[in-house]
Structures
1.
Amino acid sequence: MTDIPQITNDMGDLRVRARGLQKSFGDNHVLHGIDLDVAAGTTSVLIGPSGSGKTTILRSLNVLERPDSGTIRIDDVEVDFATLPDKGGSARQQIAALRAQSGMVFQAHNLFPHKTVIQNVIEGPVQVQKRPLEQAVDEAKALLDQVGLSDKADQYPFQLSGGQQQRVGIARALALKPRVMLFDEPTSALDPELVGEVLSVIKELAAEGWTTVLVTHEIRFAEHVADQVLFLDEGVVVERGPSAQVIGDPREERTQQFLKRILDPA
Amino acid sequence: MRHAVRLLVLAFVGLIVLPAGSATATTTHLAQADDRPVVRVGTEGVYPPFSFHDAKTNKLTGFDIDVIKAVAKKAGWKLTFVETTFDGIFTALDAKRIDVIANQVTRNPEREAKYGLGTTYTYSRGVIVVKKGTTGIKTLADIKKRSDDDDPVTAAESVTTSWADVARKAGAKIKAVDGFSEAAALVVRGDADLLINDNIAALDYLNTTGKDDIEIAGDAGDEVSEQVLAFRKDDPRLEESNKALAELKADGTLAKISEKYFKTDVTVENSGDVDVSGGRAARSDTEVAKDAAWPMLKKLLIATIPITIISFAFGLMVAVAAALARISGSRVLSAIAKAYISIIRGTPLLVQLFIVFYGLPEIGIKLSPWTSAILALSLNVGGYAAEVVRAAILSVPRGQFEAASTVGMGYWQSLRRIVFPQAARIAVPPLSNTAISLLKDTSLLAVVTVTELTQEARFAAANSGAYLVLYGVAAVYYWVVCVGMSAVQGRLETRLNRFVAR
């Protein structure tokens, strides 16, 4: 994809590097060779119309979708999807290793409904990472405190508001100590008055130096929090750069039209 | 998918090998304790006074039982008794589930040709039994005449008995029953005009049940019939048995056994009149119920309930394996699971039991009665529960699998920790239905010679004719267990609903 503006190689310490991601669902070709670089400690925001492939990119980083080809490297783990076997132990191991590098927050939170808040948070650390229970509980309590839910530890998800549920989802992802946090439209399913509490948690994380990739329609928030913004349309990166440029002063016509539709719908 | 295969294999291995293994272990144990050859005796257990359960001790007893025990003592055999309906008894002999029949098998040319029949140990005559007050049916000629008048009588008989042959030859239509007391009940109800049977059995029935609504109308011909032990053709034990019978006759043992039951020696021709009045006295329904309540409860506790629990556990494993196979995405696995579910749901459990118990030995797979029962019931439950489990798994949102993946879980861990606990909430009510049905389905197990609650009730009924009270007690036992199961279901549901908004 040589028509894409230059990939910034001077971002210093790269945390995420994706090259040439291709993905089709049947006849529907959704990713046309995506490149993505995310520097450590920065926040990248993916924007674009629905069907543009932004969520598929994010899900590919966690291998919830498996790219048909291309490579993804997060920190020191790299998987080449063109040569990855279809199935078998080696493929499972590689996918697990890459997946372990990232923490995922879903649009629909996907909390485990049969587990309490704190059980949701310690499930991965204790059951998968085999960390001692006591240590996991202590860390979980600290995380719940951080997202402002220390008093909800023993409640079940159905007893919480949407914004609280989403913050538990964030704590659950953080508990895995991932190298990068992935947010897939974390506020899209929320009532408007609950959006702020979730965004402010994400903002804090960014400020703390978490490496973050975020898919969102909250353009104003993206502009404020993003170090890098990528605008996608029809499976290609149309424009990328600092938020001040891509959102503040977009060069591409498609970007301009999209932002106009979003920011000034009337 | 590989996991699903592994689980399927494990489930089936568990079903087939484990019970078989434990059966082998038991046999070895017995062999160490006692090295006499084991001879398996087929008998009805519901044909007093020849083969029945003592009302007080509940032990299998009777004239034929005493005779075969005496034979075994002489011949140096160790006996195990297998109780089955008369109509299943020759099948069991053919299928090598038993070695000898001790149940007043009447000698006739057809049996002579097919089986190894021993020397005669009972001489008896057939009688025609009718509802009290019936007129015009006293002899086989009367039956014949009705047939010639195009108004044939109906005779209640176990269809493979020689008595059924006698009735058939006389022109009667046969109404199939499972034993003498059921035949008598049909005559009383008026659903059959008569029954033909051994005079001793008829006299004993009248005496012990105290019933006066049927009576002996007359002799079924003037031929004396001879009853023998039946082995498979060419079984060397036939000779051992004949030798033992000759010795028993010579030393007076046979006569003594006969005197005990009949006050006369029926083991020789032209004995005096049989008198069974000294035997078991008629009991009131209350006494019958009291005598049978504990043996029935015991069978509920040591057969019905354990078989239900074991079959349900295995069945659930099979169901989970079949459900996972169906949703595995593998066409082959899915097709296998679909075929299995279709076959199980498309055929009656009774037929499945017959296939496992009597059919499989023909291709070299011989399972013990308990193993057969558990195998058939497990596969049956598995077929029904598979669809319940599949629906329950599919009811768990896809996002739950994804969330489990993102915290690092593999397929099995996701299923165990995330999916199954949520699916359980959906599956418990329909699975409880399946479990309750299973409990009641165990009442069919008499056909694989497992004595459970219902069969125990039949034994007691054969001895007394007190159907209402005995099957009433059985019904209450089943119902109480079902109430308990419903209570467990309720607690489970409460527990599983705790994480759901109401």
2.
Amino acid sequence: MKFTLRIWRQKSREAPGKFVTYQVDGITPDMSFLEMLDVLNEELLARGEDPVAFEHDCREGICGSCGFLINGLAHGGRRGTTVCQLSMRFFKDGETLTLEPWRARAFPVVRDLIVDRSAFDRIIQAGGFISAPVGSAPDANAILVPKDIADTAFEAAACIGCGACVAACPNASAMLFTAAKLVHLNVLPQGQPQRYQRTLNMVAAMEAEGFGSCTNHGECAAVCPKEIPLEFIGRMNRDLRRAIFRRRFERWRDATQ
Amino acid sequence: MKTSRVSSANPLVMLWNSVIGKKIVMAVTGAVLVLFVIAHMLGNLKVYGGQQTMNAYARFLREMGWPILGHEEGLWAVRIILLVCVVLHVTAATQLTRLSWQARPQEYHEWKGLASTFASRTMRWGGVLLLVFIVFHILHMTFGVVGFSPGQFKHLAVYQNVVAGFSVWPVSLFYIVAMVALGLHLDHGIWSAIQTLGFNSGRNEHVLKLVSRAIAVIVVLGFISVPVSVMVGWVR
């Protein structure tokens, strides 16, 4: 297979970026999108040019490192798939593909297709701890978790923090990510003691990072490689509302100052 | 991080100072306005009952709650609640819109939507159009200072005012365009408010969107039927 690639090239955070067009040939349909880029980079290196910088690690769709827009769609727009798991057979031979990094004020471009997602780390950090007892491991059946709750927590825990939700959101909002992290712990019995404090802290951290405000378009859930549902944002909102009206103001004030 | 964003221990102030809180304020005020719009649409249908029915309804609105409430007291209570809701809804929308615009300083060269709808993407400018319409509509049908020839508008002669007002075709056209904008706003707005308040369970998402669209369509058809009937000559 043969492709024309229009790739966003940007040397550093401050440097101006632009699209550069490349041709790749000899791509097999079962190559992943990142393997296709590997082929391009081998050629660029052989020619003595700078390879295209893109983030990757596990290439199994579970680490959350990779991700960029392909033809205007985060991760290429294939349901429940990261770019590393996206096969070239999903594209037409000879197609022109436009590759662009996530764009958000909170995600500055580091180089080419790599953006700095430390804002996500700071939101997770703000979540603090759960009061799990230390010492010998408790019996597996010591804390009973109903099946539907376990399923919901697992669905939320599947979030790999790739940033596609922010990238696809017309408002550059990080609410699906934050909601996934909150729902994961807020529904489980182990997460109950710090539930409302955690909600206030993580929402405050999210708002401090300069993400936009959700308008329920649903673009985030549509591109999420782990298919986190939009419904979780409503659950987060409900927990925030409860937290505020349960008068846990001090925690909120500490978190926002 | 910003300091002193939360200067009060009042939960309502905390709500207003949070991005999600402002969304909740928009959802709640939006719900009040949706209920008003449905009631307003049903009230407008009184025009088909004839002059007596319509004008009697207008007088009833001024005596609502009697004898507990005096003349026009109930009406003014409703007006004040609505005004507060509109001010909060528009202020929150403006602030959140600015925040979202600032959140993506550099636009994509290419961006495709998978889930957003025409209605969801026109919430902001459609909302601005609705605000302009509301101001015009109050000057038109409540005060009678625009869209009527001098002396034509008569207070409480609602039926005659409706017929005279909608006989001017540019006014009717603007009204119909504004109602289509209202329909789009409701189509996304009702579902969106329910989602923001956390009543979407995932499983009922499909039904909620359907109900939202059904209310939007019914409200728009009800409103638009009046100017259309006047222009066609069914109501005169």
